[in-house]
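Morning, I've got a small favour to ask if you have a moment. I'm working through a protein record and want to make sense of it properly. The fold is given in discrete form, as structure tokens running alongside the sequence. Can you walk me through what the tokens say about the fold? Thanks so much in advance, here it is:
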Amino acid sequence: MQDFVHLHVHTQYSILDGQASVSRLVDKAMKDGMRGMAITDHGNMMAIKEFFNYTTKKNSGTNADIKMWKKRIALLENGEDAALKEWVDGQKKKQKEADELRRRAEANDEPIPAEANFVPEAQPEFPPIADQLATARVELVAARKRLFKPIFGCEMYVAPRRLDQMEKEKDGRRYHLIVLAKNETGYHNLVKLVSKSWTDGFYVRPRTDRFELEAHSEGLIVCSACIAGEVPRKILSGDLEGAEEAVQWYKRVFGDNYYLELQRHEVKDPDQRANRETFPLQQRANAQLIELARKYDVKLVCTNDCHFVEQEDAEAHDRLICLSTNRDLDDPKRMLYSKQEWFKTRAEMNEVFADVPEALANTCDICDQVEFYSIDHAPIMPNFAIPEEFGTEEGYRKKYTDEDLFEEFTRDENGNVVLSREDAEQKVKKLGGCDKLYRLKLEADYLAELTYIGAAKLYGDPLPEHVRERINFELHVMKTMGFPGYFLIVQDFINWSKRNGVPVGPGRGSGAGSLVAYCLGITDLDPLHYGLLFERFLNPERVSMPDFDVDFCQHNRDRTIEYVKRAYGKEAVSQIVTFGAMGAKAVVRDVGRALNMGYGEVDALAKLIPQKPGMDITIDKALEMEPDFKAKSERPEYKRLMAYSRKLEGITRNLGMHAGGVLIAPGKLTDFCPLYNADGKPENTVSQYDKKDVEKFFDLIVENVKEFDRINAR
């Protein structure tokens, strides 16, 4: 059997027609022995972070093995007997555990357990170092092969002309194109392409064009897509000259990273209601695609255009299409799929494409070309505009040396050495290296000045010693954790709001424990008066960013958001996407409508599903909690309704905008995060990754701006 990797896969984030969850797709691929897979949702990258997170989790055990074998190889290459060392370390661990058992027993005046009497084992004989090294290298290679590779992609829409041209007759249609990120450079280029397709190219669908593809071609692999792709569509329309021109253009721009894509969705069940027109068209296109591949030395790949996971999911997916297109199941003119779009196994794909084994093999070649890379990194704050009269980075570089700042950032607030040299170097590395310290020092000093100005107004001048000590401690923690810019930005837009008539709450949550925040006007609560601890808000042991819960009047928060965009640049600021999923009540009603069942009877069934604030009541939970719902749902007339509702429950149905979540990047957001905008209005631009992802994802800052209707007078 020829190995195979899926390169054309739609998740539930292909909002119109995708049913598959990321986890089910990955689990099936791994169970089948696939070495990786791509996700290529229609026009967006909304599933990519979830895909990355899930595959990282699934690979964690294998990555631990890789780390262990690499460590062992390093020891062996230095001439150390790794097996002997591991055995000695194991003996020491057992001795330590026995000693601890004895200590506890003696402290509690209890009998000494038998496990506390450790007897060292006789040292066994270990293979020669050379043999151990050879074995370790083999095991390392094997472990790396076990890693499941996520391939980040998108099925993009390509405008017939330029993305800024929007004449109905000439530009109403668009070509599909599979675009895959080969490496980190390719990922960032894909982010830019997808973002611009929404913000600049949206016309019925988000569109790119040849100019943009060529400008951002580095690190990308492209495939000709389904029969809606440019090459197959021109073949089917009889425009063979145009098809050849397209192949030549893509070959020129992408070279060996361009592939012609074959699909076969043959409906074999004569009784199944399905689209039977697609397969003959695919076969016509495939014959010419194979000829073009030979003529222009372009490699072939085969795909299945997956939209659901298992074959038995086809009927549920059919009902999803009804919901998405607002058509009844028995509508003769409604959209139909071939129902062959399940996530096929390697064996199934081998059966379908047995005559073109090279197309199967080339999917694995693409997978092998794709690099392992992370799309996560530590948070980096946007730059706050510090007045030049206070200081500049250039001035600080003349005033301080690298060693000066190294010591300042690795000692405590009193100048005491608290870290080993190795730990200190690691800390500076996490902060971005010595070069980054100059900016952090400048921000920290300006933050200190603003803080002490505010403190003098609140506590008088000179400051009480306990106030000064607390401020110095907090400022030092903020500086050495790399967050002074965060506090400068937060105080900036909060104080702007207060000065400009936008009601702001007094502050709540753990942020109220910061005295610096109180002095800056971020909060109105004196943490000293109420005995609030700063460590609950920000602690060197924490790895997460600080988080202020800020309340703005909902009728005026847009003014604050607009100020942030003006202050930090519209290209650097956006709001955050939200995903609306089909809940239990909604999915029962929607599926009932698609099945053309009476609204009254379906609504009566849905109303039996209980609602509890703060609790996600699924259909399965409702069956456990509500006997009447269980009894009614088991009636024969509701059998199909319940079966399809359970399959579609939880699927992403629509997109929205977070009420007040704001992203601020240190540059263009498209350098960090894909953007979405369906109506072309700049104020409605949002990230394609949701709040939980962007909070710990890119070089950006997330402010949780929570709306409220009423603010008590101070």
Remarks:
- Residues 698-714 have pLDDT under 50 and may be disordered.
- The chain has 29 helices and 13 strands.
- The radius of gyration is 30 Å.
- Residues 82-107 form the longest helix (26 residues).
